[in-house]
Model the fold of this input.
Amino acid sequence: MVRFLFFVVCILAVLNAYSLEQPEQEGKTITLKTAINGNEVMLRWAPLTVEAWKKGQANGFVVERVTIAENGVAISPPLVNMLEGKPFLPAEQKKWEEIMPVNDQAAIIAQSFWGENFELSAKGTRNPMTAALDKVADQNQRFAFSLMAADINFEAAVMAGWAYIDESVKPDGIYRYKVYVNGDQGTENYHEVLVNMSYPDQLPKPYGLNLGFSDNNATLSWENSYLRNIYTAYFIERSVDNKFFHKMNTTPFFVTSSSGDVSGFNRGVFTDSIPYEVVFYYRLRGIDCFGRLGPYSEVVSGKSIPTLKSIPVISDYKYLDGGKVRVYWEFDREDEELTSGLQLFRAETLDGQYEPISDLLPPQMREFIFDLKNSNYVVIAAHGKNNEMNVSGAMFIDNPNVPPPVKPAKPKGEIDSTGTVRLWWPPNPEKNLDGYHVYYARFEKDEFVQLTFKPVNDTVFTDTLSLNTQVKKAMYKIIAVNNRNSHSKASDILHLQLPDTIKPVSPYFVDHVVEADSVVLHWVNSPSIDVVKHNLYRSTGKNDQYELIALIDSVNIRTYTDRNLEEKQMYHYVITATDDSGLESLPSRSARAIIKAFREAPPVEKFTYAFDKEKLRVSLRWKKCQGIEGYQLYRKMADYSLAFYQSIPETDDRFVDTEIKPFTNYKYYIRSKGKNGLYSPFAEVEVNW
Done:
């Protein structure tokens, strides 16, 4: 039991790494591998799910061999045999008990089948849900451990009912092997492999070995992306003389995928603890799921050497006459013997190209004098005797005699229809330039606002402006700044005209007055500051087509009289504004006016009479009017009131009144009636007896 627990601890990290799990078996419940070993075929199969594992343990596995050809002759129809004539089941517990003391892997499988040592939870009071989850986890552990143990011990796999050696094959035969869980006949839950005895397989030797060293450690790695489908695990061996090697691991070493390794198992990695300055030699060989050992890899060798750990730190500096500076640093005295020398480097910018400003200095040295440039980013590096180099952080040392940058040239720029502003300008000549700040304003009297949080290194800058504004201009200027944070004078101001995409605000009518054949309109002009004219439109409403009747190009005009209009006609008016970009506002709300009848009918002319006393009648005559609807005749008799007397058609120009009384005076009044309903003034005649 002690050996069993030790083996469990060794393989906890690789529960999902048993070799028979193959990508092409996704959706299947069983997998099969074969190997030609001389004149026999070795078979290894494994369930891929806990359910198939339990079912196979209870019912066994059926392995069928289909003989396709032997002795160079095809078998027709192919001969089908069930190997052993019965399903393969685990060996009896008594046989397991006999082998467990000398076979750790057999002990693992036996414990997974019948043991009680896979309990995962502490005993005590548990709710039913926890107990159910523990049972599922326990089954998964048993399943994974047993398959892993079988993968590195073929004898144990045979006892578990997961392996078999077919010795009844011909050297030139062609066979197809098929395996499934007993009871799954006729389902898709099987796996089959074709074997041609004329092409025996050979195990490759591991390749792509690499040996790396760090303090007291040797790390051996090798290519595993292809070998993982051949070898289950590896034995690593070490030697100090390249003659006598001994195993580093008594239990085969499983290769697991590293974190972030998408493809998985690309390289095997083994780390060994070793002393300094001793040359070690390493080789390895793989073991497959049939228990076969492959050939040894090539031998790689090397030794671990103490490495430099301390990093020098620049602590201070002091200005000297003549544009020089003395720089000071600190370095661990204990690491001086691991150091071949110290060296200072300088760059003009923090992330620029660092050039040496000193030769290799003695490890005991702690200060150095050099000439200042306009910009000085200084680092110090310790060179280790093993070719390593530890570099300090950079310290900026200002040059107090450096003038500020010159005034940048006036920028150029453009604004597109989306409001994107692109600025560009020639670069400044200073080598210690840290960059440029860009400033912006919208009005001449506004204070400029800095747009750049930190200096920009490029001489191109992009800004975005909202075009949804009445302000049509933008102003920019550039200021250069060096690495001493000295600012130049501002460049000349660049004025940019914004694309006009906003229509003016609509004007609106406040009143309208109808005067005979005219309409007097009053409105409030558009408040938009870029308006250059207002446009007055009129429609009769018959077809909703408005026509332009007036252009008002003065902001002081707010009224218009529309004359010579037709009687009894409704007119609709709207007004718009146009800005200096030619954009026209939406039309105002319409003003409606109806022209009433205003033209009187033509007066009746040459209104005369003839009085015949004998016949008692008065004959009235007049000049006929044109374009009227008719005439109205009124009569006043003696002291009676004036009264309507007769309607006369427009075609007549006379009327005879026969209702005359003797000795009575009469007055006649006549007027024409226009087609618009208006009347002319009266014409009159007086008839005396």
User: Anything to note?
Assistant: The helical segments are 2-11, 50-59, 93-99, 104-114, 128-151, 154-159. Confidence is low (pLDDT under 50) at residues 1-19, 119-133. DSSP finds six helices and 43 strands in the chain.
